Amino acid sequence: MALKNSQPLDPAYLEKLQDYYAEHKVIPSYSVLATLWGISAKSWVSECVRRFEEAGYLDWTPDRQLKPGARFFERRLAHDPVQAGLPNPALADGYDLVTIDDYLIRVPSRTSLVRVKGESMIDAGIHDGDLIVVEQQPNANVGDIVVAIVDNEFTVKYLDREKGTFVLKPANKAFPVIRPRGRLEIFGVMAGLVRRTR
Amino acid sequence: MALKNSQPLDPAYLEKLQDYYAEHKVIPSYSVLATLWGISAKSWVSECVRRFEEAGYLDWTPDRQLKPGARFFERRLAHDPVQAGLPNPALADGYDLVTIDDYLIRVPSRTSLVRVKGESMIDAGIHDGDLIVVEQQPNANVGDIVVAIVDNEFTVKYLDREKGTFVLKPANKAFPVIRPRGRLEIFGVMAGLVRRTR
DNA sequence: CGGTGCACAGAACGATTGTTCGGTAAGCTA
DNA sequence: TAGCTTACCGAACAATCGTTCTGTGCACCG
After folding, report:
1. Potential cystine with A190: which of A145, B25, B57, B137 (Cβ 3.0-4.6 Å)?
2. Cα separations in angstroms, B102 against A105, A149, B59
3. CB-based contact B97:B73 (threshold 8 Å)
4. B27/D5 CA-to-C1' distance in Å
């Protein structure tokens, strides 16, 4: 006989857990889970956890502590508008798993955020007030968008080369090319962009 | 006599914990923390945790489970280029605490990501391949950037009104205004934007 | 109407948790 | 050199953890 498949679980359970996690950044104990889910038996919590684990929403650390699984953070990356608005997140595909942090940040210890001032990079889709994700490093390649330190301020520009020296080119015809005298101090390279619109 | 101040702790402890958290998304138990930190007495772990809590890096859930504190995720939001590149994250200010997820997402259960196709919104700084953070809701206001379902596909456009009916306006003169026949189906409202550039 | 799953409850239990307390060795101060 | 503080170890302990096993009531099915 084939393996018996477990029934799918109430999606509300997962949502409640995700909400709890969003608030506390931690997976609670079984007894807390029980009250969270309105269940009164830890044994049943255990079974539910087992199924969520089976489905990839929960996982275990090497020390057998419960932790979010690969699919725990997946936010519906909506490719297909057909039935996309359903409250029930159909288990099929159309998902991509990420926290946005993981999507943008590869090396946390070398990554900073810089807020953009002004419109000088607007043709590159970088607007006033946007946050630039910067990987700090002292050098970059021509064509990279870099964050440089000019006159004690951060500037976001394209890095280019003119007659052997580096220059900073804006993405806006109304702004001049910056030709630094002396060494060009590069803070880091742009790795991403974040904008909040409400 | 004034309250006795605790000594600051080895910053390496915090980094190790942050790395562990980045990998597992969970705060480990004291015994795991002990091996993580190379400490052999849980009592000393307890003391270290107390100090991290005092400093705002750790906190407790209402059920007294250890969880990340307010400053645990703080990423340097670099305002001031002076000494910004220092490896030592000076404790002063210049910080803003956020995970990018928290910065962009207010209601996890109603939030989706939609990948943008094409250049029709380029004047709004929305490029091909960008991810739009969408708060799902069935209606919106004129002037909002909305994600609508047109011909079974997602479209990102400005919502506008013409002679009493809603229309979708691109932010690119090369594209036409969309005047839907029948009801306009709105998937949600744009709340943010994420772009990865490397 | 009798069986068979399923969704849950409840008790019992050993393992693990975090706390408390006493101890020690090193370093600074007077 | 005596005394205090600090960084850590180790043992003991009650509380809590997650597991396991045994019910129980309902729904469906023949």
Report:
1. A145
2. 15, 29, 18
3. yes
4. 31
Please state, rounded to an integer, the average pLDDT across all residues of chain B. Answer: 84
Q: Is-contact A132 A156, C-beta < 8 A?
A: yes
Structure tokens at B101: 């997820």
Residues on chain A touching B193 (C-beta within 8 angstroms): 193-195, 197
Q: Which of residues 144-173 of A touch B (CB under 8 A)?
A: 145, 149, 152-154
The CATH class, in words, for A106-194 is: mainly beta
Q: How confident is the model at residue A164 (pLDDT cuts 50, 70, 90)?
A: confident
Domains B11-98 and B108-194 share a fold: no
CA atoms within 13 Å, Cβ hemisphere of A53:
13
Indicate yes or no: CB of A78 within 8 angstroms of CB of B130: no
A146 — pLDDT class (breaks 50, 70, 90): very high
**Which bases along strand D come within 7 Å of a protein CB atom?**
6-12, 16-22
pLDDT digits (tens, 9 = 90+) for B21-80: 988 999 999 999 999 999 999 999 999 999 999 999 999 999 999 999 988 887 666 655
Backbone angles phi, psi at A168, to 5 degrees: -110, 120
CA-to-CA dists, residue A48 to A53, A89, A149, B124, angstroms? 9, 18, 53, 45
Strand C positions closer than 7 A to protein CB:
6-12, 16-22
Tell me the domain boundaries of chain A. Answer: 11-98, 106-194
Q: What is the CATH T-level fold of the domain B108-194, as seen in this structure?
A: Umud Fragment, subunit A (2.10.109)
* Residue numbers of A between 79 and 118 with CB closer than 8 Å to B: 79, 81-82, 84-85, 96, 99-101, 103-105, 108-109, 111-115
Distance CA B69, CA B59 (A): 5
Report residue B111: phi and psi, to 5°. Answer: -110, 130
pLDDT value of position B170: 95
Give the residue from chain B lying closest to A194, CA to CA: B194
Q: Is B26 on the interface with A (CB under 8 A)?
A: yes
